[in-house]
Design a protein that fits this description.
alpha/beta; seven-stranded mixed β-sheet; four-stranded antiparallel β-sheet; single chain; 483 residues; binds zinc ion
């Protein structure tokens, strides 16, 4: 009995010795990783700057995607380009075997957001799109983070595979959904992601499931004054559909978001439009609600077509799941975000931030960029934000992400202010926070198999017996959705 007890104690001592040795080498690896990422900042900054200048919209990100691929190829990554039917998607891998840790990268810009990198509203002549969501920083940080991990693989300190998933068209094109649907995450253990924001925190809030579609109406053209009775207006049908949808808002769950633009409404007032198109988004925290509200939207479109004697068809453009939050991984990422720390502005950045802040409705507290928000007790709750195709990845594998203060506090996504910050020292510092936090988290994952098991267990419980089905169905990638 005594002998058994001594052996057990010995085992415990050995185990805790191993854990502390591991902790020590992890700490040393993490410290060196932070230094290495700092040393390479000028290079990464110029890549992010170039992607910002390219400002390519969804599925047209040829130069941006190539630039990131080139960077990773030079570092020895094996790059598979044009995956899942998307010419600008890629998967870059380094190392071999398990675990397989994925870093998601985005690089698409937004139409209509052209803006110079200055703290006052001024577009770039001859340019329409702009990086209003900071995906120029997103893609670059993820590549930088993977390169930092690769060095430890070369040194024999980390074993497994690190992968960068080059995901096009996040803004409405649902690029990641095709990667998930086509099985590209099948052998992945954990996926890491991040997003630009005006503060630093681990992502724990909900993201909305969504479905978007273009409804097209076909009427009969005629002279609007000479022979209006012979015309059937496709624009009338769009207006009738919108009217019904707007009435419907009173009779749908509160958390729903429905928005639309009339993407085509005729060419001249004196011609009865024989074609019109309206582009809709339906969002809700639960995908089942999105599906049922979308069905009602289709009924409104059918009713509108009937009443105006036009014809209607529709095309689903995008569809994403809500985002599953992995508590086990969020806790680990929180520690690493705290270790990385927030953002300190230099003199020029303070000046930029103050001038930019004068354009905001509420005067912000600039000091918040330096702090890290605590991890909330209740995870996966709170007001809904936007949607992300990371949601579909989170259904495929345990996923964790952070947001970092790439934008002056108070700045929101998809604004000219965000575009300006994304080509500024403030944006690059935020990008660094993300690259560092993801790299440190990956180190923990590579060195602690129990952590991956725990994350997977939690993920299994979240999924239950749900069989993943893409909300955009079987359609091929909507490569021309920005045309
Ligand atoms: Zn975004």
């Amino acid at each position: 009995m005594l002998a058994k007890l001594i052996t057990a104690c010995g085992l415990i001592i050995t185990l805790s010795l191993n854990t502390s040795l591991l902790a020590q080498s992890n700490a040393a690896m993490k410290k060196a990783t932070l230094q290495q990422l700092d040393a390479r900042l000028p290079e990464y900054q110029s890549i992010a700057q170039r992607i910002w200048e390219f400002a390519e919209v969804g599925y047209k990100e040829t130069k941006s995607s190539n630039l990131l691929q080139e960077l990773l190829r030079k570092e020895g990554f094996r790059v598979e380009a044009g995956v899942a039917g998307m010419p600008t998607a890629f998967i870059a891998s380094y190392g071999s075997g398990s675990p397989v840790i994925a870093l998601l990268a985005e690089y698409d810009a937004l139409p209509g957001l052209s803006q110079q990198g200055i703290p006052e509203k001024k577009s770039i002549p001859g340019q329409d799109a702009g990086h209003g969501c900071g995906h120029n920083l997103f893609g670059t940080a993820s590549a930088a983070s993977a390169i930092a991990i690769k060095q430890w693989m070369d040194a024999g300190q980390l074993k497994g595979t690190i992968r960068v998933y080059g995901c096009p068209a996040e803004e409405g094109g649902s690029g990641k959904v095709y990667l998930v649907r086509d099985g590209y995450f099948k052998d992945v253990d954990v996926a890491l992601h991040w997003h630009p924001k005006d503060k630093n925190f681990v992502t724990t809030g909900i993201r909305l499931a969504n479905t978007s579609a273009k409804f097209r109406f076909y009427g009969v053209a005629s002279h609007a004054s000479v022979a209006p009775e012979r015309g059937r207006s496709a624009l009338d049908a769009v207006e009738a559909m919108n009217f019904m949808t707007n009435l419907m808002r009173e009779h749908i769950p509160q958390e729903t978001r429905i928005h639309y633009i009339i993407s085509q409404g005729g060419k001249a007032p004196n011609v009865v439009p024989d074609f019109a198109e309206v582009f809709y988004y339906v969002r809700h925290p639960k995908r089942e609600q999105v599906q049922s509200i979308f069905e009602r939207l289709v009924k409104a479109a059918e009713g509108a077509a009937k009443g105006t004697e036009t014809k209607m068809d529709y095309e689903i453009i995008g569809g994403t799941h809500d985002l599953l939050i992995n508590h086990s991984l969020a806790k680990v990422m929180q520690q690493n975000l705290e270790l990385t720390g927030g953002i300190q502005y230099n003199e020029a950045e303070v000046k930029f931030a103050k001038q930019l802040a004068s354009s905001l409705t509420n005067p912000p507290d600039l000091s918040t960029a330096a702090s890290i928000l605590p991890l909330p007790d209740a995870i996966g709750t709170g007001a809904g934000e936007g949607s992300t195709d990371v949601g579909d990845v989170s259904y495929a594998v345990p996923t964790v992400g952070l947001e970092s203060a790439t934008w002056v506090p108070g700045v929101v996504a998809h604004s000219w202010q965000a575009v300006a910050c994304n080509a500024n020292g403030i944006g690059y510092k935020g990008m660094q926070v993300a690259a560092k936090t993801m790299a440190l988290t990956a180190i923990d994952l590579f060195t602690n198999p129990a952590l991956i098991q725990q994350a997977k267990e939690e993920h299994r419980k979240q999924i239950g017996n749900y069989q993943y089905k893409a909300l955009l169905g079987n359609r091929p990638p909507a490569l021309n959705y920005r045309d």
